[in-house]
Amino acid sequence: MENAATACLLAELHFGRLNGIRDAVLVAVSEGVGTGVFANGQVITGNHGMAGEFGHISLDPSGISCACGRRGCWETVSSCDAALRYYQELQPLADPIAFHELLNKAEEGDQAAVEALAKQARHLGRGLGPIIAGLSPRVILIAGDITSAWHRFGPIIEKEAAELTLAGTPPRILPTHDGDLARLRGAAALVFQRRFFREPSLTAR
User: Fold this and answer.
1) What are the phi and psi torsion angles at 42 (to 5°)?
2) Domains in the chain: how many in total?
3) pTM greater than the 0.70 cutoff
4) Domain annotation covers residue 21
C-alpha cells in the first residue's frame, strides 16, 4: 500500500512534530535505507511512487553490490546490514548477531560494536549530502532502531550533515517518535489520509 519511509513520514505529519514545517525528509534505516519527501507542504511520491529513492544513489561506483543491481549505493554502507557487516569485519570469529544485539553490545562497551555503529552513522550523515543539496529540507527525521542509541550516534550524523550544507543553517536532524512503532503509526496514518483526504497528497495544516 505504501513504502515504509513514506508511511513513517505520514505518521510524523499526523502524530508528530511537523506542524508549521513545509519541507522535511524522513530517512528510514533498516535492512535498507528509504526516504519519504515532504516538499512545499506536500508529500512527494513521483512517477510510479518512486520519488525519494536516495538509498539507491551510488556513492561509490566501485563499492559492493546492491540489491538493485548497482554498486556502492548509499544503503550498502549505511543500513543496519552494513553495520552488522562492519562488526563482522572487526570481529571475524564472532557468531552472527541481529542489529538489536549490536546496539546492546555497544551500550555494554563492546568497542567493535561502537566502531561499527559509528561507521554506519558517518555514512548515514554523508549520504544526506544529495538530499540537503537537492531538497534543502528544514528538518531531516531518522527512523529505525538506531534511534534508540541517538545519544551516542545522533551527533555523528549531525556533524556530517552540517559539513555538507552549502549555505545557511543546516537542517535539524532528529530521531522519530517511537522509532520502533514508526511503521505501525504510518499504517494508521495512511488509513486516516485515504479516509479523510480526497487529494493524493497530504497538505500541511
Assistant:
1) -135, 145
2) 1
3) yes
4) yes
